[in-house]
Amino acid sequence: MNKDLLKSEVQKFINESLEANFSKIALLKNPFPEISWTEILTQIASKAKAKTKLPTWFNTNNIIYPSKISIEQTSSEITANYKAKLISGDSIIDLTGGFGIDDYYFSKVFFKVVHCELNQELHEIVKNNFLSLSVENIEFYKGDSLDILKNLNSKFDWIYIDPSRRNEAKGKVFMLKDCLPNVPENLDLYFTFSDNILIKTAPLLDISAGLSELKNVSEIHVVAINNEVKELLWILKKNFLGGQKIKTINISKDKDEIFDFDLVSNDDLPTFSEPKKYLYEPNSAILKSGGFNNVAIKYNLSKLQQHSHLYTSEELIKFPGRSFKINQTFEYNKANMKESLMNLKANITTRNFPESVEELRKKWKIKDGGELYSFFTTDKTNRKIVLICDKI
């Protein structure tokens, strides 16, 4: 960590460059030859990225930032705050401390927080930043978290882990055993130091795959911000053998959409029907959770088709997702498309449909946007249909 970055004239230059064109800034001559230009550019790019994601850090003086990629991969303050509302106690150890966003919020609900970080520079950066943030109940350890855990040899109320993928070349499908640390391999050891474990994973992890690798899972939280799933949170309790609760939340500026259900074998199936007066599309957190039948049953809605995940009713209800009034329904064919949608401006959504949004736009010359909403999907008789709607 280069403390020269905290000099007032350097900080002034960084702050004045945040709104400028980064490409043009990068071509300038370095006004501070004693500091690497790459280091200064990193501060500009990372701080600009932190403006909306990490406003507490952005608005605090004498903060040093890691790489822009690290900022992109760290928890946002919104999700960190959500996690801190789930758990509390006397002590927590974060085995994958990183930039420390989660630990900042844990420090508000725990008497002591232990931050572990393998990378020396990041370890020093975080220590500096928490001093600037006036947080005094966090202890910092540099090194392998498993060794730190063994050396401390203390019982913690909670262990927190945010494992990182070790091999990006494996594509989008990954298992927890492919991450660092290897949580499934070390789970029994972790439970000797705490009865409660909170694990954060990327939304790419399949829930059924996670359950196949973990044990003693009591809750799974699917957290979305503005209808984009950001995190899966796994709460593990020592010796827990019951069924899992799935808790979904979509956090937005106006409201929080919450839908919870039990992950148990359920023989209850939703009804299926032709489109009625209103159409409903679940938010992304519900879609990720797999609670397709649960949401239909809870809200007494009919599904259009088993795999379409669109719902309908005669009476308008308050629903955790988008709601629409159906103005027109027709079978998908050339004649109907030419009459109803061709050359128009419309928002397009596909659900259980063989053609992509891009293909449909190109094929029927449909411009993006406007007040019209069109859904291309499959009905209960497996017909390809189009629904023209107004958003409610």
TrEMBL record:
CDD domains: AdoMet_MTases. The lineage of its organism: Bacteria, Pseudomonadati, Bacteroidota, Flavobacteriia, Flavobacteriales. Pfam families: PG_1098_Fer, Thump_like. Residues 278-320 form the PG-1098 ferredoxin-like domain. Residues 321-391 form the THUMP-like domain. This is Class I SAM-dependent methyltransferase.
